[in-house]
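Quick illustration for those who missed Monday's session on complexes.
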Amino acid sequence: MSSYKSGFATIIGRPNVGKSTLLNTILGQKIAIMSDKPQTTRNKIQGFFTTENAQIIFIDTPGIHKPKHKLGEFMVTVAERTLNEVDIVLYLVDASADFGGGEEFIINQLEKIDTPVFLVLNKIDLVSRDKLLTLISLYSGKYHFAEVIPISALANDNVDQLISVIEKYLPEGPQFYPADMITDQPERAIIAELIREKVLHLTREEIPHAVAVEVTEVKERERDLVYVGAIIYIERDSQKGIIIGKKGSMLKEIGKLAREDVENLLGSKIFLELWVKVQKDWRNRDVALRNFGYDK
Ligand code: GDP
Ligand code: K
Ligand code: MG
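Prediction with guanosine-5'-diphosphate bound:
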């Protein structure tokens, strides 16, 4: 019998290439929020994939990009620091997009590390075979990738193949986490992210990244009914109306969609109460960042 293997695989790539979608597909449960807006994932999320032979600890990072403000700086630091500490780097690219400066920037970062890097071409459901082959030869000319694996994270196509190749690269090691544990995220952090996801989806362009969610209370009030209280923070008074909507219609819709996801997560009926508060310029203040759990 071969011995148990375990190790870390970090998922990197530009915003919106599908990193969170891949993690969710692998884990079969929604822990990393997804959206078509860049920079949806703010802090590092670990997901544990466990089989009888191996345990892979996946790390979903915020997309690598040039920082514009303090929160941006924090996000880049987190992404780059992990590269040298893991066993495998999964470099995810959007196969339906053209090669650009953003990818060049990441490949330059990869030159600095010794960790094996897999080129994972995602969204193959959107591209022709010819386009895929052209992209593969383009990327392969720029860096020596340990493996090249095309997938569709959304359609769950070839993801099982990706996992079996990852297992080959893992060192021998113990099962660090129990088999039924799928993430290190505290329940409150996941709930906050689920609510933030709904805000991002529903408000579209109007509220780009000026939103943070703090879950203030999760408490079983009656048998099979959990009370969840949360504050949606925005930066400007003018954004308050957008979040609340006409006669409260937007906040109601945010609450309705979030409640479904949170009920799935907790496996129980919930009563969700949402408040909206203005906290000016929270993205540029370290204190505010710590409040929201983005600690360095
Ligand atoms: P991240 O910023 O890299 O974490 O990207 P997300 O996981 O949030 O995904 C960004 C967008 O791409 C979402 O709208 C996803 O539904 C979409 N997406 C992710 N993977 C795929 C895929 O394999 N095929 C297609 N067509 N869309 C995908
Ligand atoms: K995203
Ligand atoms: Mg993400």
